[in-house]
Amino acid sequence: MSGWDKSAITIATFLPVAGAVVIAVMPKEKDRLIRWLGVLFTGAAMVVAIAIAIGFDYGGHSGLQFELDTSWISAIGARYHVGIDGISLPLYVLTFVLTFLCAIYTTRYVPEPGRTKAFLGLMLLLETGMAGTFIAFDLVLFFVFWELVLVPMYFLIGIWGSANREYASIKFFLYTVFGSVFMLLGFLGMYFRSDISNAPGLQHSFDIVQLQAFGGAGGFSHGFQLVVFAAVALGFAVKVPMWPFHTWLPDAHTEAPTIGSVLLAGIMLKMGTYGFIRIALPVLPYGAQKFAPWIGLLAAIAIVYAALACLAQKDLKRLIAFSSVGHMGFVMLGIATLTTIGIQAAIFGMVAHGVITGMLFFCVGSIYDRYHTREIADIGGGMMQNVPKLAGIFAFVSIASLGLPGLAGFWGEVMALLSSFNPASGQNVGLFRGFMVAGGIGTILTAGYFLWMLQRVNLGVLPERWKEHRFSDMLAVEWWAWMPLLVGILVLGLYPKIVFGTSSEAVTALLHAVGVGG
Amino acid sequence: MIRLPLVLVFSAVLFSAGVYGVLARRNAVLVLMSIELMLNAVTVNLVGFSSLWRNLTGQVFGLFIIAVAAAEVGIGLAIVILIFRNRETINVDEVNLLKW
Amino acid sequence: MVAEAAAAVGPGLTRYAWVVAVLPFVSAPLILFFGRRTPGRGWIYGVASVGAGFVLSLGILWHFVQGGGPTASSVSWFQVGPFTVELGQYVDGLTAVMFIVVTGVSLCVHVYSIGYMHGDARFTWFYVVLSLFTGAMLDVVVSDNLFQLLVGWEVMGVCSYLLIGHWWEEKVNSDAAIKAFITTRTGDVPFLFGIFALVFATGFTTSNIQQIGEMSAAGEMSSALMIGAALLLFGGTIGKSAQFPLYVWLPDAMAGPTPVSALIHAATMVAAGVYMVARLFEVFIHADPLVLTVVSVIGAITLLLAAFLALVQDDIKRVLAYSTISQLAYMVAALGLGEAGYAPAMFHLFTHAFFKALLFLGAGSVIHAVHSNYMSDMGGLRTSMRTTYVTYVIGSLALAGIFPLSGFFSKDELLVAAYHDKTYWLLIVLLLGAVITAFYTMRMLVLTFGGEYRGHEHPHESPRSMTGPLVALAAATVFVGWLGFGPTNAPFFDWVFIGHPEDVSFVAWIAIVSTIAAVGGLALGYVTYVKQPAREPLTRLGPVYTLLENKYYLDDFYLNGIVYPIRDRLSAGVNWFNRSILDGIVHLFALTTRGLAAVVNLFDRGVIDGVVNGAGEGAEEAGGFLRYVQSGNVQGYAAILLGLGIIGVIVVAIIYVK
Description:
The complex is a heterotrimer. Helices cover about 75% and strands about 5% of the residues of chain A. By secondary structure, chain A is mainly alpha-helical. In chain A, strands 1-2 form a two-stranded antiparallel sheet. In chain A, helix 1 packs antiparallel against helix 2 (about 30-55), helix 9 (about 250-255) packs across helix 12 and helix 12 packs antiparallel against helix 13. In chain A, about 65% of the residues are buried. Chain B has three helices and no strands. Chain C is an all-alpha fold. Chain C has 26 helices and two strands. Chain C has helices spanning about 1-10, 15-35, 45-65, 95-115, 125-140, 145-165, 170-200, 210-215, 225-240, 250, 260-265, 270-280, 280-285, 290-310, 315-335, 340-370, 380-385, 385-400, 405-420, 425-450, 465-480, 490-495, 510-530, 545-550, 555-625, 635-655, and strands at about 70-80, 85-90. Chain C has a two-stranded antiparallel ribbon with strand order 1-2. In chain C, helix 13 packs across helix 14 (about 290-310), helix 14 runs antiparallel to helix 15 (about 315-335) and helix 15 (about 315-335) runs antiparallel to helix 20 (about 425-450). Chain C starts with a helix and ends with a helix. At the A-C interface, helix 6, helix 11, helix 13, helix 17 and helix 18 of A face strand 1, helix 6, helix 7 and helix 25 of C.
């Protein structure tokens, strides 16, 4: 193990914090310099992350790579244990890419009331929190990163948000904290019930790998698993968000600045689903099996419910926020099946949703930047005549989001549905096929609301009131910030092996370890 | 040999006279003197018991009291003189500044 | 035997069949990125790629003309869990024939559009989507597995959405586009589930169509699963090939530019549904007779419903649209006959593609001239548009099934198939359909080209780029029918067969009856409309006519019974539920917490702080009261002391005395 192998993850994860510190000491007046420092640091972190992805061993190696396990808070047995595997890697890289693109976007757009320094500082902090969540293999470390994310996002919404920002930011914060309290209790429960006395010195462990081995071998009693799974799942479910814990999401998205929405939808939501795959499922396999039908039910409801809610939305951003609920429903449906196909579909769905919905929020942000309204009725159609390129990209991404094959949105959803045709043994097949049918109806409704939205926003004749406004079409910075995502949508759709191939070994090993593979 | 009960009665009378003086007289000098009376009553008591028990301790205390009484009268009279200089009176009813 | 033939001929060009499908996917981005800078605004790429594809397709067909066998090849695309998805091609006679249809018609449409779309604001974009669409259809045709097929299938759906809504300034057009997409997707979802069922039946080992076919033929799949899969797959056909009850999108799709209608709604996309059934025919015929009956019945119902609707249309394109639905239903109904109907259905698909494309392009030429879709604005065009007129008549007679045009041969085969299968009810339906078809065809011909001109523009013949394809397609219409005619083995049935090449049996009386039906229908139509009646004669049918005019109220039912309630009321209900109930609970939670906080606050201030402050205040008050004891009177103090002393003495005395 060379020094690089041990330190690469730490470098990438904490580079943004260093950037935040550097930006914090910069004089406020050097606005341009600060913006480019943001690009520099997120870019550097992204380069390291990509180097990790290049150095990653994709073939037949299911364990952790770039692992570092060192003492941290020895009093409670919490360790600094980080590493990366095929499940983490796509999300980890996505985090850095998306934040980098946000930094590029910020070189031009800093939302009201300015204060670039604080804005970028918080964004960098957020990046570390999100990236850290995906590589932490110690429950305490995981929890620290998990909570670290909340604070910057709270301020991003609370300071740079739109009219109703205070309500939204507080709702977001409290709701998530509410969930994470239960999650923490669950973690503590796992700790105190874990027994790793064969390891020297300690009896209990926060280490996720050890807990997986312990829990996968049936170390936890069934009653305990049910209770703790419920607690942990509640914490994750709020973050995903699963129906009916989703109501913070539309508000947070609607009020958040563009960057906030992009990162929130693009990455933060995945922390919840990632938690299910990484912690809840392998550590508490019995609980997972018992709760799977309920998770599947909530997911199926979410898909249909979100699509219907989207049809009723008048605010463009709120509509897309609700569409996130539906897409995450597909991800959760895949997880609920407890099959390799389902979980791989879930991982693919997460990445695809990150790219597509992140891009949709970028689009809406740019539309708002031109029209200064997000009301569909106020925009009133004709955007294709006004800003054809922006409108075209918006249409492209919307169509990707409704699940056109050949684009990123398709494979995650189809494979999730396929997996629910045949859930893991022990699950009620008929029930899951019912969920599949609900998901299928959801895809029709999804197509419906996206196309209806496009009709009302993009198509038709430009209303008189916008004719005297000369809006600029795509700006250079938008091309730069969006092109990687647009290419990503196409590449993920045409060559899904990028994600499926990466996650395959890790998912198979994970399910094999807990004995629910199928 | 004087019988103890007589001594005690005398002491009691003397003390009572002192108590009366302290409580009833308005003149500060008289109050001081009444205190002396009370002290002397105590001294008589001590001496009386001393002779009864053939023990000198009582007489030693008696001597202490005489010494203390002398000092007390010295200081007391000095205070009275100072009060008189300031207030032109030594009536204790009128010297009541140290109150609520 | 097949293997031997293949060995004898060698795979030839069939190995490169995938190139045909890839070419349009290359030209689409070329047009998108370089089209505007290219002379002619980019059509050249599209025409070149499709033209090259057509030439290559001819080469591939030549392989089968020589008696070659099918080839298959594939590469791994990606793997999910235990399941591998492949990219591959399977080329047999059916593939080759479909290649000819798709590239041939697409080439005509590409060339035709140069003239028809000339001057359109989004000319370049039109060609991008046209290329993409052609590529997607070719992918469906060449694909050797279900997922690759599904990709092409859905991409076609989106392309049709884009093309139907090409003139999106008008809300009617974008409405039609959305309707087409959503309706076909409603069929695609069952189709997807059907794919799942088949993949599941193979134990997640493959999605290869040939392997699935072999497994189902060998009885390795559970019959319940196969019945389910076949019915679900047929849902895809109902959507894409516009069968009852999902045919409603196709007439509205006429909102798109006419070349699009010719390509999508006559020759390719709608044919994809029929093609898919043919590709997966092993599953259908080995599932259960019930499945085939369902297929037949749906086809028969659609056939009649659509044919009746074609009678009352004024929009020339809608006549053709309903006629397309009806003709597709012929194929579907024939497929329901099982093996007997397979090759005839494909033959009808083949011939129909040419004459229907010809009719659409001809109608486009007419519309281009008179700037109206309505036949009430036409009339008398036989003189002013000579080429269009002649070719249109050829197409119409083919549609009506008149010897020796292609429609006659293929329709005859269908009738023969029904006869041999002893499915006489279907034979009657098909014949009845033939009469109605002939009737509305003649009505269309007479109203458009006969009588006097009723429009306002000055009609003129279309440019060469438009009439050229018309002539080419007319030639095809005249000649391709002979491929299905031969003394022993007709060439077409050597290329396309299931099981073994079939002997073409010519039943004389059926040919005669069908000709009588066609001629009768035509004659009736001519008699009814030759005088160009001002009032539509069919209005005499009264309530039936009203029913037809309102399209059996099916559209109204869908809109008012399903779409609007979901879009407006149900969604509003969900939104209300979200805001009032779910958010209400959250807010209730918040309010309760705040109320609790207020109570705690009161307790904190009142009780806990009260104790602390009370201690201080109590001491103060007690002090305030007790200070009055401090009178400053020395004698008073002394008296108190005395009193206390006496009390003390008494107390002590009492205690000790006792």
